[in-house]
Predict the 3D structure of the following.
Amino acid sequence: MNSEPAIVFSPLKTKRRFEEISTKIKELILKGVLKTGDRLPSETELARQFKVGRQTIREALRLLELSGFITVQRGGSGGPIIENTIMNTLSSSFLDAFKYSNTTIAELTLARIQIETQVLKEALKHIDDADVRALRENIVRAKKMTAEGMQAFRANIDFHKLLAKASKNHVFVIVVDAIMTVVANLLSRRGEPSPEESSYVTKSHERLLDSIVAKREQEAISLLQAHMIEVEKLFPRKK
Amino acid sequence: MNSEPAIVFSPLKTKRRFEEISTKIKELILKGVLKTGDRLPSETELARQFKVGRQTIREALRLLELSGFITVQRGGSGGPIIENTIMNTLSSSFLDAFKYSNTTIAELTLARIQIETQVLKEALKHIDDADVRALRENIVRAKKMTAEGMQAFRANIDFHKLLAKASKNHVFVIVVDAIMTVVANLLSRRGEPSPEESSYVTKSHERLLDSIVAKREQEAISLLQAHMIEVEKLFPRKK
DNA sequence: TCACATTTGTCCGTATGTATC
DNA sequence: AGATACATACGGACAAATGTG
């Protein structure tokens, strides 16, 4: 009767030991039993406790490392440490997906305009003094860097992340972070933006921040959208 | 003069062999030299070619596997195969980030409303016959499943992914896919949605699709937003 | 159905590199 | 600077899984 059987059961691919160990430790971290900064036992000790070989432990640690739950330090008093680097792994996954799907610059800009406009509206509702201070600091830092002839595009990218933070919505923070990683990758790939370009971007941010502080919503939205269209021109043209 | 030295160079943490091998193979895949369905040599053969031990190869394969570039099959004529599972890894990263940041249901719903409304607007511009067909099929499938007393919430989640696809913007496709994974996780965690609930959701989708086909933008937007607010009530309350 | 070959999964022992004290 | 502790890496071996003849 069913031309296509429904997917009821979970994949259940494989029960490899290192996967079980990885998920077990992952659960302990998510439940809060293991907290950031805590040190996991050494590989040999973990192997003893789980009653498996060291190689199995090593592969489990690779999974945890790439999933963004731990980092591993070599040398004396080193070892696996609980550390949240999920945003890094999420961003690089997003970047891979972007590359793999052959997404165009135009699509990226369009999505940025749509999403960040909503983020801006939320930010206008929930922004507080600490946010404004952080944004102002960001601009000062970017200005100082361009004045010294240094690259400021990292700081300029952080501006958008700070704006997302001001929306007080974690989902926006995550999404914007991922998108800005792609933007950063595109910009850094095609050489460095010139100091004039960076300076122009920073000035745009400054005007935008003024509008936000003054609560002029429509003006802020217009500035943001115009800004992103301008930034698109900095991207590599070919492909 | 600089209170805080600028981050100019990349981290350059470690050059572990398995990382180098992993990135090398990753580049070959992204450049198109290795294509989906191609089989990589066996672990022993890879170890011979790269002149490293098998353990190193295995850890490199773990990275590639978790990054979503390959899958590994055991047994005769098995081995590593080029396969794109990036959306899976991206979604699970997003889910981890969601859990780790203690994002609330309210935040998720708000972000969904904001983002999916934009997606809907784009979909209204670019939707074509194939999209409509796929969406109608999705509804038929969901109805059939609820009629047979089966869970239809996977199908109902696919509806939103298909809508994102109709926007013809890959960024939206990626973002919505990630968000819907979180939604699916929240729903499946708190037991299964009852058949009545699933049925209600499917009917909402049907009305929404009618509005889309008729190009009644405002009505479609209203339906979508009301729909998501209703769905929020199905989520687990506590925490 | 059954044996076989291939390949991953796992373990052990050992050596080397690296960071800390 | 030396000792220590740890991850990193190598090689060999066997078990388990899976497709093939």
Notes: Chain B touches chain A through 54 residues (CB under 8 Å). Chain B has two domains: 17-84, 88-232. The domain at 17-84 of chain B is CATH 1.10.10.10 (Arc Repressor Mutant, subunit A).
